[in-house]
Amino acid sequence: MKLELRRLTVATPRAQDAQRHWPERESLLLRLSDAEGRAGIGEASPLPGYSPDALGDVERALARLPLSEVEAALARPTREALATLAGLLPRDLPSARMALETAALDLLGAREQRSAPALLGALPGAHRPLAQLLGPADSDTLVADAVRALRGGFRHLKLKLGAPGRLAAEIEAVAAVRRHLGAAVSLRLDANGSLTSTEIETAWATLAGLDIELFEEPGAVPKSLLGAFPLALDESLQGLTELEVVALLQQSRARSIVLKPMALGGLAHCLRLAERAHELEIGVVVSHCFDGPFAFRAAAALALAIPAGLAHGLAPHAGLAAWSKSELPVREGALELWSDAGLGGATEHGFP
């Protein structure tokens, strides 16, 4: 077993929320190769200011992996193998776990000549709708961007709130999109925890009439709105165990969770969280941290493997084009199953 690491910096235009902007992304690629010459590629792309880990720590941890234990884990069934591999790395380095699990999934696909979604349990013909992130709600091009997304087949649109001093304008912008597109789309909001309890209560007086599908991490949700508010948990899940997530879901009365494998610690953990959410009748959305194509395809495999439900936050973001021109498994606003082994797609931008 051989492990190789390579750093890569890629431009990521329009990677932003209402308060932060990431014009480029630095990632660490990992390649696992076996004695027969088969290989799998994984990716660690912690998002600065959002992810709990840093790339330097991730690189050092991956370089110290005991390859004999990695090789032994790969002899197990897929989900067991991924969980075992995750356990070789600290919980506070989630993107390291994601990189190792993704490379392992890709390698197992090459060995078994099966696609990554199939290895995770996706059924034949699996097809999942996607939500398109439009960006900050107060963008001058918001309505035009929404119309463009609708023409591209996306029926679920996500807008970012929380720019300092701009809440009233953001609410009006959300209302403008609803007026322009009517019931043709589902609207999702995300404030990345930036709003106060008073701001949420004031905003919801208007937003409640706009048929908001999800409101991710608004901030301090008033007790009066718990249960009546379409709360989705995202960054609140970081660093929590499976049992702690279940407790938080019950306490917050959230309606859905957003699983970002890069920030939560990989595929095996997210699969377990999806199962717990399903048992609690809570919706699941798989999303990204403006990752590259390897992590994107791993997250897509996860989304295709869990039961159908809410649209996933895996519409291709602008930064993916800087990585590779390879076609992604997305058509008419939806994820499609692929048949190529492992992650599928070309990996010419990974290793020579």
Give the structural class: alpha/beta
Main sheet: which strands, in order across?
5-6-7-8-9-10-11
List the secondary-structure elements in sequence, H or E.
EEEHHHHHEEHEHEHEEHEHHEHHEE
Instruction: Tell how many strands the DSSP assignment holds.
Output: 13
Fill in the CATH topology of the largest domain.
TIM Barrel
Key structural traits:
2 domains; Enolase-like, domain 1; TIM Barrel; 7-stranded parallel sheet; 3-stranded antiparallel sheet; single chain; 13 helices; 352 residues; alpha/beta
Can you offer a commentary on this structure?
- There is one protein chain.
- The chain is α/β, with parallel strands linked by helices.
- The protein folds into 2 domains: 2-113, Enolase-like, domain 1 (2-Layer Sandwich), CATH 3.30.390; 120-336, Alpha-Beta Barrel (TIM Barrel).
- 37% of the residues lie in helices and 19% in strands.
- The strands form 3 sheets. A 7-stranded parallel beta sheet has the order 5-6-7-8-9-10-11. Strands 1-2-3 form a 3-stranded antiparallel beta sheet. Strands 4-13-12 form a 3-stranded antiparallel beta sheet, with helices on one face.
- A hairpin with a 5-residue loop joins β2 (24-33) and β3 (39-44).
- α6 (142-151) runs parallel beside α7 and α7 (167-181) packs parallel to α8 (197-207).
- The longest helix is centred in the first third of the chain and has 19 residues, at 94-112.
